[in-house]
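Annex B. Sample input.
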Amino acid sequence: MQDCPEPESAHRSRTSASGGWRPWWAVLAWIAVLLPTIWLRPPVNHFWGFDEQVYAVVGDGLNHGLAPYRDLWDNKGLAWYALFALILRFLGHQASSINATVILLVAVIQVLIYRVVRQIPLSRLVAFGAAGIFGLASVMCGRELNSEIGVLVGSIAGFWLALIGAQRTNMWAWLGAGLMVGLGASCKVVGALDLAGLLVLATLWPAAINPHWNWRLMHRFLPCLLGVAIVPAVSALWCALHDALGPMIELVLGFTTAQAGVVPINLDFVGQVFRWCWHLTTLSPHLWLPALVGLVVAIQLVRQSAASSPAQRTNRAVMGALLVWTGAGLTGALAGRRFGPGYYHYWWQLYAPLAVLAAVGLEHIWRKWATQLQWRRAAVLLVFALLLLVGLRPTNPKGRIADWATILAHQESPMPYQLVGQYVAAHSGPTDHIFVWARSPAVYFFAQRLPATPYIFCLPLTALYSGTARPYDAHQDWRRWATDFDAHKPLYVVDGSEPESAGPAWQLAHHPPLVERISNYELETIIAGYRILRRKDSGR
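Annex B, continued. Sample output.
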């Protein structure tokens, strides 16, 4: 078993004999952990992805008394909108607040990865390596503040607290573990799948490291289940008090189910998964290839028939916990049924356990091939240098450095939706409503004007969500849209169907209710292709 990752006691004796951790190790560790988070996204960038625009508008509406689901149409959990509301309230009503939060949360995830690996326990080298590898891999998941990041923070914090609870027989830790998973599930429904991983961990981990463990599962299951239920219960209570419980159930549960559909378990689906994993491997070889080695090591150790010594039992439990965590992350990633460019963020949940497996795999290779201490140091430096070069390679023709240079040189160059929002803000009053057609909800954010209808983007009205297991019907939404539009009489209608066109379904002429109502509007100006229409009877 010399090739298997060593338990903490063995690692401590080895590092003590070699003089402990020297400063150059610390410098290397900080580079591995922090550099990827800084590279992830320039905080001065004005650009937001579509999802971020939606979340920012809903969070901003929450700060101004609007209720998600009732007043603003979207299908993520209330906790995620609350996070955006807090960001905008305390960090400022600006794009850089959200952009900087991406870097902060990735750093938090890296710290949590380090703590989980040390709690298992594995060596500091594996812990720092896993955190650094995740930072590099996170660049490939996109630089947007997507809800999958919230799911990952909740799940990894939950696994960390579960490990503490299992080792110390601490029911409060199990309560906290369930609370964190419930928080992740309240960001996006797929986070609830991590509960299965927690319960498996609660069952197997204590007995794996201690054959005389008392199997009183309720001391772990009940606090864990209670913790999971707290955040959704609070969210449901808040929605009930704001007349939004029905819409919340319809969107968060009903619509999400219709959008995701039922995962088909057949050869075609398996082929899709393998083809997509191969694509991800080509994008992040520094993550997937060593993770494959770590997976083989973990499976071999878990299948070991005899584990008589404490070190062997600990190693089996360590690898079993990693496999459980990986399985939970894979299940959450597959639940979205998104295989194609543009959906890399759906795999955030899997990238954290893969990063740990990758670090385990690299350590396994180092111990197998480098037996002398000086060769180990050289191997460590070489591997980390290669990982940095591979992980930070340009992912587009301009590259990351060109991206930074362009942004820093044009910090004051706003995006089109910012220009449109500023124009509307300058030519309307604080109590005026507006309506934006297409996929630029950020116009509401920069205009700081209330939306005339809950539909802050056009997808639910164009029925582009059809074709799922339960096709989504847009007719009911058009009826509600017409009622709200007539009640609020928006001063401006912003038409982005030309610069953002995704086909005929986005054109105004294809939607009679919209055509009928904009007949009372006239073209005032065009900014970056966006037609800004003003109500004729509004005066000047």
